[in-house]
Specification:
By secondary structure, the chain is of the alpha+beta class. The protein contains 15 helices and 60 strands. Strand 13 and strand 14 (477-482) form a beta hairpin. The longest helix is centred in the N-terminal third of the chain and has 20 residues, at 67-86. The protein is globular. This is CTLH domain-containing protein.
Length: 1134
Amino acid sequence: MSSLSRELVFLILQFLDEEKFKETVHKLEQESGFFFNMKHFEDQVQAGEWDEVERYLCGFTKVEDNRYSMKIFFEIRKQKYLEALDRQDRAKAVEILVKDLKVFASFNEELFKEITQLLTLENFRQNEQLSKYGDTKSARGIMLIELKKLIEANPLFRDKLTFPAFKASRLRTLINQSLNWQHQLCKNPRSNPDIKTLFTDHACTPTNGARPPPPTNNPLVGPIPKAGAFPPIGAHNPFQPVVSPSPGAIAGWMSSTNPSLPHAAVAAGPPSLVQPSTAAAFLKHQRTPTGVAGMDYQSGDSEHLMKRIRTGQSDEVSFSGVAHAPNVYSQDDLPKSVVRTITQGSNVMSMDFHPQQQTVLLVGTNVGDISLWEVGSRERLAHKTFKVWDISTCSMPLQTALLKDATISVNRCVWGPDGLILGVAFSKHIVQIYTYNPNGELRQHLEIDAHIGGVNDVAFAHPNKQLCIVTCGDDKTIKVWDAQTGRRLYTFEGHEAPVYSVCPHYKENIQFIFSTAIDGKIKAWLYDCLGSRVDYDAPGHWCTMMAYSADGTRLFSCGTSKDGESHLVEWNESEGAIKRTYLGFRKRSLGVVQFDTTRNRFLAAGDEFQIKFWDMDNTNILTAVEAEGGLPASPRLRFNKEGSLLAVTTSDNGIKILANNDGLRLTRLLESRPMEGHRGPSEPINSKPLIVNALGPAANVSAAMSPSLERSDRIQPAVSINNLATMDSSRLVDVKPKISDDLEKIKSWKIPDIVDQSQLKALRLPDPVTTGKVVRLIYTNSGLALLALISNAVHKLWKWQRSERNPLGKSTAYVVPQLWQPANGTLMTNDTGDNNPPEESAACIALSKNDSYVMSASGGKVSLFNMMTFKVMTTFMSPPPAATFLAFHPQDNNIIAIGMEDSTIQIYNVRVDEVKTKLKGHQKRVTGLAFSQILNCLVSSGADAQLCVWSIDGWEKRKSRFIQAPAGRSSPLVGDTKVQFHNDQTHLLVVHESQIAVYDSKLECVRSWSPKDSLPAPISSAIYSCDSMLVYAGFGDGAVGVFDADSLRLRCRIAPSAYIPSQPLSGVYPLVIAAHPSEPNQIALGMSDGAVHVVEPTDAEPKWGGQPSQDNGSLPSNSSNPALSGQPAELPPR
């Protein structure tokens, strides 16, 4: 909004205030965000109008904007919470806690738990810190003093606390002046003009006689300034010439997305984001406006040109925060100190930090390899050299290009939005997509022959709630691919030169893509077939990259001309013009300048052998650093999500990591940790791969996904024509080996069998009184404690304490935890009802996401416990029937799905204490429930061995089926059946004593495994590891099996003698298994004799089944038969 438009809002505010439109005044203050009326805010706080207080505040700031904003909202919500407690309105207090205060738990968990604990007190003033809390009025007054200080200190409120000084009735005066001006333009002005409307220009009706003097007063609009106060009409034109916005406006083209409209149905005028959503909002195919110099684009070999100019790709930004306001930050926030130097070994072309793991860096180089680095510990987690995964599926142009010149470079590598997938764009045709797990393993997922020539950029987007891959290339096109199947969804054509970069984004519910080409053209596309919505020239008219700020409100671009002039600018989307141009670049840059943004605060670019920083709100350069020297002329750079680390390329094929104080602490923390077990020493590239399960991951050139466990710091040489030919010929021979040969080798392999306590680390948790059976066992979400429900209805909680040996207080088998109880010795004991003894009742348990509450039942009422005090908050659902399974709704913690003993499922609202609906479909008791947000469904399982799928929206049944009986078992099956969703939320683990099976979203069994060979006993329990890479299963003879989740291949067997310290008693077995929430190789076993064991691999062998017997020999290589290779027939996406 221009400054004049802003001033007009102030004039309207003054007019509304003078006319006593009080509510409208404050609504406009809030919606415009230009003036924060402190007096109105104080009045609302004193009146306790909390909803209005927050609504008004939200016009100026949001909770997560900065620490001042967070404190403001916290103080308001805390006061609202305390007032509800003071009124003894516990239900309202719980609602405020869950809806309003829970957002602060992730920032200060201990404080949130302390606030939660106030619910257990008769009077919250018993809390020492609240002992001086007076009455409501005085408390609000004290809070207001604190709020005013926070608002005045908050940079988002700068220049918004004072109303501009101007004369009263200024808008009325301007209107009178306008009317006077219009009256002077009348051909036959009358002495007393009759002005009846402001909707049309004034004109006097013709009269006879001489021209009278100009009017001096009008009763409708007040005094009109005298004519003498205005210049003579002939002195200037009556109206300033209208300046039309540039026809190349950026915004507004996405205002309507009706695909049925023909492309010709567009408005002739320029677009704007505030236009109504109509057909007129579409842009025509704009061309360079008249008067703008035409492009001096030199035609030539585009591939050669792209090789010459390629210096990395646009970094698509993703970071938190939603406010767009002037920044007030210290230069200390900038990462300027060199804390790490990493030797990559070849020229780095592209980098990207993991979106969640702040110190994991993805790197792509000019020889086609990619690496994953843990920059804190300087450890290379993974290294992949370039190879074509399946040459037989490649197009002839690609095969020809590789034979002519086998050298290949990474043009761009980028993480997906959730960090579970990454994409690599190469300089010849190909995009490769890998899946990633937190252990640092990369698995081949998709290989796409995407473009003719180089693939210059790759990014991820979510059109229609579907994860997609966006690519662009030398063939002048942009393409969109399904990230799961690799199927092409869209092709966008219209550029007249190779496309240099893409920037997917969305505004409100409208998804779109910006693209830039090397002729300097910028275009924008909706996900349809109607062509480009925008066509205009970028500053510099050559290589340009675009990026949005994290909150999506600010658009930046950085480009370099052929003459070396660089341009870093911010765009005004509403007007389609450049808002500001940042200064400080070298006159003639020696390469295409790269840039990045961080946390809505700073911009950084590599230029003049330096990193240059700008405040987003200031065009002058903020500072520049040389990073202790050794940088190239135009270094590439990349911030991590938090902005605490900055990766910068060096001229000696390395990377420097720069940090601020937060980044320094982060890297020191990682450096001080012992080397994590799953990151073992590097192996030579040409060494024999390790066998990690019974069959091992065969190196499968033709498979769509084949995991690789290599951990090498060696750099392979670039692929040459000679070794490419060798590689291709070897493929022809080995891609389909003889099945019989492989079978002989497989039969000779030995499944790793862990039978001795020296082969793992196991700990029996301390418990002075061991009675009954452990019927339910879960880790807390923080992973710092274990909660068990015993068959006698008593809960037991073990907490790991922080110590020198365990500084983070993490659960581990290496440190003995404390069996924790409140000081008063209270036990968490469920109501057991009067029907059956506790040992025979179905037990169920569910933990809130913040670990503050546990909901539990043991045949009687369902109890809600406070985890801090062990006190019962409330009970509900009196039997019969008894509850047999509990599951929280994924989007609303007030909604609980409760499986019942009578085979129904009750959808219960805790807040209003009401059963919303009952679901009927099972024939026996419900024994398992699992929600999927992606499928928008609830899956239930029962003792009838039946699976049912229910829609979350209307709770109607979508589908049901009985699980398949394995060979040798009579059908139909009966017995408890459990379900759990894979991390992809589409594949389902189904557990029955006769089998573990994986089902897809259509309830089709993808694969299954039944007890046999070394694991013949019935299955007692099974669960996915936290990363869904493994399945742990317990058996009735005390053994534990560790399976690959993708293929259900047995990795190893853990005998009871390995984890039970003394001689295991006959009949003792794991009744339930719990998987650690962040350590995929740690499990806890709840035993039939009441004991709990924590089990994990040793430091020497950090993964289950990681080292096979020496007698196993080598793997059969290149098996294309999924039944024989280490690969599953079908792998779910991650």
